[in-house]
Amino acid sequence: xxxxxxxxxxxxxxxxxxxxxxxxxxxxxxxxxxxxxxxxxxxxxxxxxxxxxxxxxxxxxxxxxxxxxxxxxxxxxxxxxxxxxxxxxxxxxxxxxxxxxxxxxxxxxxxxxxxxxxxxxxxxxxxxxxxxxxxxxxxxxxxxxxxxxxxxxxxxxxxxxxxxxxxxxxxxxxxxxxxxxxxxxxxxxxxxxxxxxxxxxxxxxxxxxxxxxxxxxxxxxxxxxxxxxxxxxxxxxxxxxxxxxxxxxxxxxxxxxxxxxxxxxxxxxxxxxxxxxxxxxxxxxxxxxxxxxxxxxxxxxxxxxxxxxxxxxxxxxxxxxxxxxxxxxxxxxxxxxxxxxxxxxxxxxxxxxxxxxxxxxxxxxxxxxxxxxxxxxxxxxxxxxxxxxxxxxxxxxxxxxxxxxxxxxxxxxxxxxxxxxxxxxxxxxxxxxxxxxxxxxxxxxxxxxxxxxxxxxxxx
Length: 460
What we know:
Blueprint: E1 5-11, H1 15-24, E2 28-32, E3 43-46, E4 49-52, E5 58-59, H2 63-73, E6 77-79, E7 84-88, E8 91-94, H3 106-120, H4 130-138, H5 140-155, H6 176-183, E9 196-199, H7 211-218, E10 224-226, E11 229-234, E12 239-243, E13 249-260, H8 264-269, H9 276-283, E14 286-298, E15 308-310, E16 320-323, H10 324-327, E17 336-346, H11 354-368, E18 376-391, H12 396-409, E19 412-414, H13 416-419, H14 426-442
Parallel strand pairs: 1-2, 1-13, 2-10, 7-15, 13-19
Antiparallel strand pairs: 3-4, 5-9, 6-9, 7-8, 11-12, 12-13, 14-17, 14-18, 15-16, 16-17
């Protein structure tokens, strides 16, 4: 039986919620709307082909987090050095593009290096918006080649309406020496400290992909209530009211603290005590969803195309193609492979009909030559991540500060990528969850976790 009253109540069984609850043992109860834990860190099985719900590659922010997570997951977690490429109008280059210019057309390389050097030597006040930040960081040619068209396609909003920082993966101007080495053919992708990791369980394992990580974290949680949707968060009564999988009303109460990993706007709107002005501001927070079209392919596996490829051109609907067999050779039968195509859109956009989306993505696959000769698609599925990416405009930071102050002041601690409404890595989220769980377990006053936005991740 799941207790209906507990010291710490955790809302959401993504990585953050599982990490904090695993530190608390029987003193925590986790409520999860879905029928299995993991949040977006789940894998889907389709006719013998495995697909990550959303593509993730794991890296660690510090040795302590690495040691803890590797101890939890075990030998299934193996090194997986990332290899990615960018397809541009001037040729194909390794990612990050700015450090691997040497494979592009010569005159394009000259303009890229010249403009980047000019941008590095130009001072001025802080950039006013995202587009200006990109131009000042990389120069006009690199931006026209990749950063501007890719980000317009990624965010589906005017780039001069977005904040210059806070929500995107880590963007920093490379040293000019590294750019020159890459232009001369000697570049190397910046490596994450400690490398990057991915699960590769033995053949015949019950689950594959990044859900191996979620399942391992979930095994440490003593009280996990699946199929329970939190609808009202009553901060005065320290009570959450909701529905279980059978549609029955349920109530859970906490004595010491509530940890919320649900999307921050949804948590504020679920609190009767939240000021109307704060609720109105939270309704204005923006995000992107991502439609991932998963294709089961029969035929020879492509080689040399990397773990994923970016496509900034508007002629194809997807921003990235992901080759699952590069992460785990056993993610598909020997005579086939699994392919993911990612299509972002604003969270308030009308969802496209699934058949239309699949048709457009199929046309894009043929346009870029993603299916080698002898390969054919034998199955397909559309997977939604909503929200997937938070979006920052001029008013976002102020709204987040107000929302976090209100919730934390009433004993509800926002945690995780969507609970704190920031761009964060899996490793950073787990680190913050372990730390908060330890603070709550030992009785020390919980302190707000640090933002992960400045640390970023390898891929957007």
